[in-house]
Amino acid sequence: MESIHLNVALLRRRVPNLTKSARTVGLRPATVSNLCNGKISLGRTEVRTLVALASLAECSLDELIIRGERFEMIETGIKVIDLFAPLAKGGTAGLVARPGMGQLVVLAEIFHRLNKKKFKIAFLQPEGDHPEISDITEIVDFNCLSISEVEEKVIQIGKNTDVIFVADRSHVIDGTIYRLQEKWADLPSVTTFLVDLKGEAIDKDLPYGPLETLWQFDMELSARHLYPAIHPLHSTSTVLEGANLEQNHFYTQQKAQKLLRRYRELKSIVRVSGVETLSETDTQIYQRGEKLENYLTQPLFVAEAFTGVEGVHVQLEQVLVDVRKLIEGVYDHKDKEDFAMVGRISG
């Protein structure tokens, strides 16, 4: 089957305030956002929706739809990310979380790992005093104090190396990000990270506009210290489109989400009535869900000084093997505690 996807970069260049402008042609902002991040398959989209988008961007349908190309995944070695919401190379990733949920730790961890992959990281300093970003600024290659500085630096280094660009949501609101991305459109690979230091994004339906990768953090996981507290059901990526994933990845990801979705439903029952009220089948699903939820935790390299636990990198291939075996019941004999804050499953 031919891979087709939306030309999100073109849409951003032609229509900076894309989700807001969508209303002017009769489209819901959420629909446009979900088309851009892959939640809605392009193959199942109504023709009139695509025609409306093309008219908004003043382009043809052939320009709007890209055929035959695949989104390249940047493998991070972080289980929950690589399985459920892979980082799309050259795309825009947005983090949605309230303060204290660990988003800056995850960001620092990813930069630590990407540094080893020879990515160069440029950070646009936000206005005001933000002492909480010190762990990030120590890792990045370039701390830029102005828009012109980061623009020039990315152009300078982006011709010969993969670049990570990091900015606060405030620069999305004033349109700075879109203008910069347009100027960098001809560079081989600039992957953008958007973070919300004020914690306001979580209360917005479309906090950043269209994204290729969305990491939604989960308050419950954070409260239970199950880190990284990235929601496995609400986080998504354009890389997740079936045509862009290896079949084994797509199959395992879908099965894992189905298990976690049912597990979360059963958890509400267990809280009220206890696990003994579940049927034998539901008890099995619930217990496997607990183990999978624990398995998605992971020791991080940047947190070693605080946790005393050595960080681990888990290849996606190993994650798929572990998760598939867990879902199939191979590890039913093990305790749920055996899965928490580990790398691969042993034994």
From TrEMBL:
It is found in: Membrane. Residues 244-316 form the ATP synthase A/B type C-terminal domain. Its main location: membrane. GO terms for molecular function: ATP binding; proton-transporting ATP synthase activity, rotational mechanism. SUPFAM superfamilies: C-terminal domain of alpha and beta subunits of F1 ATP synthase, P-loop containing nucleoside triphosphate hydrolases. PANTHER family: ATP SYNTHASE, ATP SYNTHASE SUBUNIT BETA, MITOCHONDRIAL. This is ATP synthase A/B type C-terminal domain-containing protein. It comes from Halobacillus litoralis. The lineage of its organism: Bacteria, Bacillati, Bacillota, Bacilli, Bacillales.
